[in-house]
Specification:
8-stranded mixed β-barrel, single chain, elongated, disordered N terminus, 17 helices, 14 strands, alpha/beta, 455 residues
Amino acid sequence: MSIGDGIERAIAAVADPMAVMRRVVDEALLLIPTAEGAVVELADDETLTYACAAGSLAAHVGLRLDAGNSFSGMAIRIGTTLICTDSRVDPRVDADACRQVGAVSMICVPLLRGGDRVGVLKVSAAHPDAFTQGDVASLAKLAEFISWAIATASDLVQFTSTLNAGSGVPGTKSADEAETGGGNSSAHARFVGNVLRPGLVADSDTRERIQSVIAASSIDMVCQPIVELASGRLVGAEALARFRHSAQSTPDRWFADAHRVGLGIELELAALDRALGLLGDIPTGAYLAVNASAPTVLAAAASGRFDVPAPQRLVIELTEQLEVDNYPELSATLIRLRRRGLRVAIDDTGSGVSTLAHILKLAPDIIKLDRTLTTGIDLDPVRRALAGALATFANETGARVVAEGIESAAELDTVIGLGISFGQGYHLGRPAPPAQLNRFTVAESLAGLPVSRQP
């Protein structure tokens, strides 16, 4: 999902004033760390009403103030952000009202809808001198964002693109200005993003993280051996992506996040480029398996990425990161690749019903049995029955089965007993740099794996 997606939901959020105000007061307390309370006061003729509040002011929702005698009313009248350092001695404030809500320090910012001043965003604290001029500037800039965004909900496409770019919103500073200390526009943009569409900022952060990985090609590749089960000899290796500085996120999560923010194919292609670079490091006689979703296969084929030496040593493992939208196009592309010697595997077979459709429509050379079927297969007759049926189906159609996730001797013996000839898993070999594959003896003629079929 890209940052410009979900515009209708964002507009709906803006159309719900209470939802917007709740987000505003919650986020204001985060934006100004010394604030103890936050409130949106709405103007109505000569009064101001606490419409939505958080923190120490939450208990005072519904409170009505005299606009002509209050600090908030003054901010509205003159259209300027105001700060009160001590309400006990400041003649501009309604001292009784401040005592009632426990507000000693305050910042009041007018809010606009179009050209009308419709209310005030206020933060407060129960002690004097709680806020700095930096807090005043932050809240003032924030009000410009909120007022503009709410008044121009129909322009949210522009708003979200400028949030991602960091410039272009009225009243903001450029990214260069922000880097040189010229304001806090990034924080303001993040605030408004959270107000208008929760999750928008998280998606923006994810996009930035993934874009940096793609730009720097900071993807490492390891290889997990695929062996002939009866002999333990190497027949191939699956290239697996590893992301630097990703202790809190697995490779699967990286790719899922990338697809969610609209960068899935780009990240897959970056990983594919790194994987294809390993082909020369794989022991002669073994194949290299690379992972790609259907749209990525189409993009890679169109760009000539599969034009590699010794294409008969390359296996494309089709993943289910994205659904196949156009089987005829995918099939035609795979036929062209297979005529050149490449082979096709269906990954994660048994993890979902859609995999069976892949098998029937694409007639793969290799069927990879998902680890959810292999794990505990020695103890579960249902898993054994399904794996055995897939092995029989593969043998009758000229394909081969590779069992993934073999992690114990008992699982290995069971898989062999079901007539499955090839496998991979921690019990057979962990993912490692390609150089470590040299410790294996390579099976002759790729251990009988089929020459690429042309359906």
